[in-house]
Specification:
The structure is a single chain. The protein is mainly α. The chain has one domain. The protein contains 11 helices and no strands.
Amino acid sequence: MALAIVTLVSRLPQLLSRNLLLEGDECILGLMGMHVAQGRDFPIFFYGQKYGLSIVEAPAAALSFTLFGSGAVPLKIAILAIWIAGIAFYFLAFARVMGAARSFWITLLLALMPAWAATAMKAWSGYVTAFSATGATLYLMTRRDAAGIPWLIAGGLTGIIYFAQPLWLPSVLPIVLYFLWLNRGRISCLGSYAAGILCVILFVFTMRAYWGAGATETWLGPPIGNRHLLLSVPSLLNQT
């Protein structure tokens, strides 16, 4: 509760500012949320794209619009609520390994990290979802009694991370492999984890077919890869 309060209070200067604006992508997600609230559509991926899983953020925006009306602040609050749920999962996961006190201070630093000050409320469809899903995955895997069901859910969350924002996977997979190694005596853990991933993949493709994705659209996966990697180095250094 303290972490949730601190996270919300630290974002109030932005939420109450007259200069609070939505970017183009955020406006599109807001439109998606309105379509969900009106029962007109249930988008699986970000409009106009074949990546950026939106089955979490668009319904959250729809709920916020229903309660508070449409606008920039309700949209930001909806995304922040998802991010706060992730913070709670990170705290609970860290607490099992390092204790509650140390976990609280580490998670507090995460909540107040400047890089997340605005990004925690960005309605970009997938980024915040992947953040929170990663925390929930860690929470499930750090359970001492983790067996079939927790690993099944963890696998499903890993699938969600992949569809939402696969940039999180390089940090998630080594941790997954470590806990699978710790539970190497339990074959059910690996089987349940793989089954969870498969269930999410089947769900996403089934939903896309049900909601009438264009016949010419084929999901090619997230945009991974760079044909001109060396040419990107100067831009990377400039941003750094």
